[in-house]
Write a structure and sequence with these properties.
Order of helices and strands: HHHHHHHH
Number of helices: 8
Strand content: under 5%
Number of domains: 1
Largest sheet: none
Helix content: 55-70%
Distance between the termini: 37 Å
């Protein structure tokens, strides 16, 4: 096997991904792999699939410790995510989110909780923002790793991945998996 990766670099350079986008997507892949451990392993280190487990671990077990700093960081991540979505022409109406993020039918009812009667995103408190962002980050991950992509549009999604990375870091740091050095 050839350990020279010039052929891969040449291919990726032909896509014209800028270095910042490549870096943010690489970070996303690494952070997601750590986050996925929270999702897919139960307390006995056996496979399970539960976004709710992560939410419960962070929210229910730590409800009394949701401080102003954590709340402010979640607000920043939530606003950054909405701004990034708008930059790539993903409006915040329900049907657009459903189609652009390929939301699974079983997630549709969960997503509806975060919309007003007028059909726009309406998250008011920490828990709603946290749950909405978690759902969107999961969909970004699925869209990145499954199916055919127009890789030439990845540069446009740099801010979206950056917001996702901030969320993933928040979770990994808050659960003790990653610590700020």
């Amino acid at each position: 096997m050839n350990n020279n990766y010039d052929h891969i670099d040449k291919y990726i350079n032909n896509i014209n991904l800028n270095k910042a986008t490549k870096s943010v997507i690489s970070d996303f892949a690494i952070l997601w792999s750590q986050y996925e451990g929270l999702l897919f392993l139960d307390d006995r280190n056996e496979p399970s699939y539960s976004y709710n487990k992560v939410y419960k671990k962070l929210l229910e077990d730590r409800k009394s410790t949701i401080n102003e700093n954590l709340s402010n960081r979640m607000n920043m991540i939530y606003n950054s995510l909405l701004s990034a979505m708008n930059k790539i022409d993903i409006s915040n109406d329900f049907r657009t989110i459903m189609s652009r993020f390929h939301v699974w039918p079983k997630e549709e009812n969960e997503l509806k909780k975060y919309y007003s009667k007028e059909g726009v995103i309406d998250c008011n408190d920490f828990v709603e923002k946290f749950m909405f962002v978690a759902l969107i980050v999961g969909r970004v991950r699925n869209n990145m790793f499954h199916g055919i992509k127009d890789v030439t549009r990845l540069n446009l999604q740099k801010d979206l991945f950056s917001a996702c990375n901030e969320y993933l870091w928040l979770i990994l740091n808050a659960t003790g998996i990653a610590k700020t050095f």
